Amino acid sequence: MSLRLPYGLGGANLSRVIVLAISMVLAGCQVDEPRGTGKQGAAAKQAPVVNIAFKDSATDAVTSWSANVVVTQSNNRSVGGTKELQRYAVRTKLIDGRVVSRIDLPPRGTMGARTVVTDGQTTVVADTGSGAVLNRVITPTPAGLDTNVSQRLMGRVSSAEFVAAARKLSYDVAVEDSGRWTIVSVPEVSLVSLRSGAVQPNIPKNYQIVFDTIDETIASTVLVEEGPDGTVLTTTTTNQYQMVEDQPILIGQVIEEEHTIPGSLPLGPDALPAEIVPEALEEVTQGQLEEMAKTSLVVDVDPIIGDRSDPSYTLTTFIQYSDIELNGVDEAAMRILLGGQK
Amino acid sequence: MKKTTTFILVTVLTAPLAFATQFDNLLFFDGIGSTVVDSDSLTSSALSNSNNLSLERQVDLFRSHYVTPATPGPKVIVAHSQGGVRALGFASKYPQDTKAVITIGSPVKGHPMLLNPQTTKNKVNKAIEIVKNGASAVIPVAGDVTLGVVDQILKAAGYGGTVVDQLTNAILMSKVTGDSANLNSILEMALDPSTQRFPGLKDLSPNSDFITSRISPKIDHTYKTVKIHTGYEWVWVKTDTKVIQLGFTRIRIPIYGFRSVPTYAFKQVLTSTTVTPKLAKSTLVSFIRGTNNDPLSFVDASTRQSIKKVMADYVQATRAAETIEAGLGVIYAGVAVSAGLSLNFPLAIAAGGTSVLFYSYSDKAGRGAEWVENYKSSLGDILGDRDNDSFIPYKAQSWDAESLGGTTMRWNNENFPDNHLTERINPQIWGVGGQLGKAVTSEGDPVLRRLLREAGLDPADGVFQSVGGMAK
C-alpha cells in the first residue's frame, strides 16, 4: 500500500508541529532544575531523573540515539492534573546513509505491545512479542534530506545560516536591542501560499522563530492560526535541554496551545457556581465527607476551572525524554523488521 | 433500526392470581414515565405521565385514590425508581397513612445527573463526539479492518445505521428524541426552562424542593463545591516568563520547572451539620439496591452478542489506527526536522503539517478505543457513580436510617446483581412468578416476602397482591 503526502510540496497547512519540527533540533532556553518544595517535596515521589549516557564522549559524532519518551498533557481549565497520552521507547540510527527509527509502544487497552520501524521509505508495524508483521506501509519521503543525526539531536545551529536563508525568502528579520535575540517572522502571504490543498481548516496568520544568537539555539517559536469559527490558536514551543560536556542535549519539549474561542457556553440550571477557583474552595477531610454522605448525596464533579461560560482553554503538552543514550543503538534491532524479516 | 434497549416498562395490572390474597393496604409504585390517574377519582380517565406531574401532586393523588373510608389502613408501599422517591414523600407528608416504605433501585437521595443537567448533557455530547471522532480517525492506511467495512457488515446483517449509532444507541445515549429510555431525552427534559414541564423528573434532583422539604434531613438546600486532597504529582509548571521587547512587539517565552503539586478531587455537598429527620419513627423503611452496571444487560443475549462484536471491531480498527498513525506522526516530524536543517522550508512545513495530522488522528483513534473498551465506567462517569444499576448510582439508592428517620427493617440495604429493569422481576426479590405491579410470591424465599411479613402482611397462601398503586 502506498501513501501520498496529503500536502503537496507547494501546499501545506502550517501548523503547530512546524514548531516541533524545527525546534526539535534546535536549542531553546535553559529551564529550572527540578526541585521539590519543602513539605510537598518530602511528601511527593522523587522527580524523574534524566540519565544521559554516551559511548565515548558527548562531542563525538552522533550516529544513533535512543530514549524513553513520555508524552503528557494538561488543560488549564480541567482539574484532572496531567494526563499521560503516550509512552514509548524510540531508537534512531544512521544505517547505510538513511535514518532508521524504531518506536516500541507498550500494551494499550486491548492492544498488545507494538513496534513501528521505518527507514522513511517503508514503515512496518509488528507485534512486539511475536515479531509478526501486522502492517506494511510505503511512506515515500523526499531524497536529499540531511541525515546527520547529531545535528538533529544537539542543540546548536547556525542562526546566521537560517537568517540568511530567511532573508532570501523575504522573511522579516529583526534583532533585539541587546543583540542577543534575532526574530524571524514568516509573512502571512507565505504561510497561506504554502497551505493550498491542506485538509485542516485553520488559517495561519503569524509565525515567528526566536533565535538565541549567543547560545546558537532557537529559544522559541510562536504560531498564530485562525479557525473557521473565529477561534484563535496560538502555539508556543520551547525546548528543554540538559548540558553535558558543554553540549545541550534535548531532554524534552513543552508545546503550549492557547485556544481563544469566541462566544459563551450555557450554564443551565446547574448547581455548580458560575466561576470556580480551586484555591478558594473549602478543603474537607475524608472523615468529614463520609459524615456528609450519611445525611445527603455527595456528588463527584469534574468542573471547568474559572468562568464556566468561557470556552477558551490552553492545552500544554510535555514530551519528556529519559534514559537517553547516544551511539548505543544495536543495528540488528533496527534491521529486524525491514526487508520482510519477521 | 428499531431501538432495542429500553429500561422502563409500563407494567399493566393483570387479573388477580388464583388463590392470591389482595391487600387493600399494599401499594406498588412505578417509576418515571409511568401512568398516573390525574384526578382525585381513581376511575377517572384523565391520565398523565408521571414525568409531567410534580411529585407533590402525585403524593396527594395517591392519597386520594388509596386512603379512603373503605380502605383507611396505613399503607405498605413497595416502590421502584421514581416511585421510591414518591413513596418516601408520601410517608413524610402522611405518616399516619404509612406503615412501611420499601424501595428498589430508587434515587432516594436524588439523581446526581439532575443536579447539574447542563454539565451532564455536555458529557453525553462529548462522549458521542469521542466515539465518532475515533471512527473518522480510522483512515484507509491504518488497517485492514476499516469502519466502512464494519458498516457494510452491519447493513448486510439488517442492522442498519452506522457503527457509531450502534455504539451510542447501545449505551443509552442515542439522540433519538422522545424516547424516555435514553439519557439524552432525560437531560433535555431536565433542561427544559419551563417550570411547568416535566416537574416529576426535575423533582428527582438532589436539591429539588420535594426532596429537600420532604426527604432530606439537612437544613441547607444549596449544594456547595469543596475539594479533598488526594495526593501529589510531579508536573511541569510555568515558573517564569522571559519577555523580549522588539520595538512595539513583545514576545514572551515561558520557562518551565518540574514541581510537586497537590492533587484534589472535587465534590458537591450539603455542609450543614444540623439534621432533622423527616420521617416518623413509626414508619418502617428498607432499601433494596441494584448493582449491575453493564448497560448491555438491558438487551437480549443475541443483540448483546451483536453489539459486542461491533464494539470489538471498532476497538480493533481504532487501536490499529492509533499505533500506525502515531508512527507516521513521528516519521513525518523527522522529515520536517531534516527538511528544516536543509533550509527547505516548504518541505518542512508540508511534512510538519502531515505529522500533526497523523498525531491528531492517532489521538482521536486512541480516545475512541479507550471509551468503548471502558464503556461501563465511561457511562458511570456520566451517571455520577461507576457503581450503579445502569441508571441509578449505587450511593443514591439508600439513606442512613438514623438521619432519614423512620425505623430500619430487619432486611435493609440488600444488594442484588440487577439492572434497572430486572430489579422489577428478579425472583430473589419478588419470588418465582412475582413482579412489580403483579404480586410477591413465596416461592424461593424472596426478600420482599420477609419484609412484607415484618410489616404485618401475612397471606395464608403466601402470595401478596396489591390492589393498586399503578394505573391499569
Number of strands of chain B: 11
- Please state the CA-atom Rg of chain B, rounded to the nearest Å: 28 Å
- Given as residue ranges, the uncertain stretches of chain A (5+ residues, pLDDT < 50) are 1-48, 194-199
Structural class of chain A: mainly beta
Give the C-alpha Rg of chain A.
24 Å
What assembly state would you assign to the polypeptide chains in this entry?
A: heterodimer
* Helix fraction bin of chain A: 10-25%
Q: What is the overall shape of chain A?
A: globular
Cα(first) to Cα(last) distance of chain A is 19 Å
Helical stretch tally of chain A: 7
Q: Tally the helices of chain B: what do you get?
A: 14
What do the pLDDT scores of chain B average to? 83
Average per-residue pLDDT of chain A, rounded, comes to: 73
The secondary structure category of chain B is alpha/beta
Q: Termini of chain B, distance in Å?
A: 30 Å
Q: Which ranges of chain B are low-confidence, i.e. pLDDT below 50, for 5 or more consecutive residues?
A: 1-19, 142-146
Task: Please describe the topology of this protein.
The complex is a heterodimer of chains A (342) and B (472).
Chain A lengths: L15 H8 L15 H5 L8 E3 L9 E12 L7 E13 L2 E8 L8 E5 L3 E6 L5 E6 L10 H5 L5 H10 L3 E4 L5 E6 L1 H6 L9 E10 L4 E10 L5 E13 L2 E14 L14 E2 L5 E2 L2 H10 L3 E3 L4 E2 L5 E14 L4 H5 L7
Parallel strand pairs in A: 1-18
Antiparallel strand pairs in A: 2-3, 2-18, 3-4, 4-5, 5-6, 6-7, 8-9, 9-10, 10-11, 11-12, 12-13, 13-18, 14-17
Chain B lengths: L20 E9 L5 E3 L9 E3 L5 H12 L8 E6 L1 H12 L4 E7 L12 H20 L10 H10 L6 H8 L12 H9 L7 H4 L6 H7 L8 E23 L2 E21 L9 E12 L10 H41 L3 H29 L1 H9 L17 H4 E4 L5 E3 L10 H4 L16 H8 L9 E5 L4
Parallel strand pairs in B: 1-4, 1-11, 4-5, 5-8, 8-9, 8-10
Antiparallel strand pairs in B: 2-3, 6-7
